[in-house]
Amino acid sequence: MKGVIRTILLIALICIFSIQFTMSMVIFTDLDNHWGKEHVNWAANTMELIDGFNDGTFRPDDIMTRIDFILALNTLLVKKNIYQDVGLHFGKGINISYTDVDRYHWAYGELAILATYISEYGNADIEIKEIFTEDTFNPNKPINRHEVLLLSRAVTTPPIEDHIISFKDVDANIPNYNLIIESVNNGILRGYSDGTLRLDKNITRAEAATVLRRVATDVNYLADKFLVYEDIKSRNIGIELPIFQQIDEHESQSQLHQRFIDAITSIQYSAFVGHIPYHERHLYDMQPIETLWGLKNQNYYNVIGNNYYLIKYDKDLVMERKKELVKEGLQHLKLNVNSSFDGLISFLSIAAELLPMEETMNAAEATFRQSDNSKTKLETGLFIMSQYMANNEMDKGLNIHRSLLEYEFADDIKAQIIRNYGYLLYSLKGADEAIRILKDLKDEMDLDFNELNPNAIEFTFNGLMKQILIQSKN
């Protein structure tokens, strides 16, 4: 009976959440088969930038007004934390000199914050008066493609690809021509098949939604810090309870391996709690250190793991014996360079404390060169990198990162390797060479291109190159 009640409650909760989602998700009656349906739903429902009408329509082919576009753009920049990141808020900003939008006009604050961001924080050399050039702003006037291209470029990043484009109806001598072309290269708006750009053409509400979505993708590259060197973290690096050598070809030692797991689990539990409660003692190994020494005498294959926990937790060990255990572990590593070691960086860190750094580095570097195992390659590489960066040997660090990029890792780890590689490239070789190398590397990886939703690797490449471009122009 209780199971039936739980099932009924679960169904009821699902229905409630489904109703709430449906109520928040506006289904517009005039979007069926419209080319902009996906973009409109993103702008109206996902981001809530543009409202529909009371009759349930969106009217995607109606024109977009200047003020409606600016309201939507401001909302987008607020939701992406762009204004907050630079300490900008409504009510703070430069004076706006339009005769029809004075300080008491309801739209003044919207214009002021956007104008201030463009003038003081934007990555394009332009002011809002160069976009809306009349003495009056005319809030309800339709916004055209020329204004949208300039306005979008004023809040986005420089394009990675600097294609030389010419349009039959655009004079290269017009003001801010380069920014118009940069905005096209950023994919904000595209030319027509007849070779025209039609700058004077008003944009529709559906087109505005599409532009805003493209702007949103681009400003994500402003919200992250790419040109910063960071130590690489993962679930299996620097974990609290590393297992070290995995049980693969050593199935004959499965019982010994289980005793090892039980022993280190007991050590960890006791260290965390302080003691093992009496009523739980049957669940744990009450003499884990003795167990580890016993495993050692039985030639348990996981030498590095066993020695690591003995060095760390056997309080009776003298320094010379600890050094012997470390050297034994490094010798085991030398003989098993292609094995997978989970937590090897922890063992290398202890080795560096007990032995001369040169001895530990030689072992780590030899393993890095010889190993074809991605996990062992990564963990030895990270240890080596920590020493290179501490000694400001960035050129050596660059080579380590480039070698690691030949191996497959989880996307978050690979993305951080790429970030560090890009940082080192820019620091050592400058903007132009760094971007050239990153472009070539990106092409080599043959990534699946998704303009509006790039994966972690593509996002990292794009972000690196865009922020290098920004830094080099500042």
Automatic annotation (TrEMBL):
Keywords: Kinase, Membrane, Repeat, Transferase, Transmembrane, Transmembrane helix. Residues 23-87, 163-226 form the SLH domain. It holds the Pfam family SLH. This is Protein kinase domain-containing protein. The chain crosses the membrane at residues 7-28. It comes from the Bacteria. The keyword Oxidoreductase does not apply. The keyword Cell membrane does not apply. GO terms for molecular function: kinase activity.
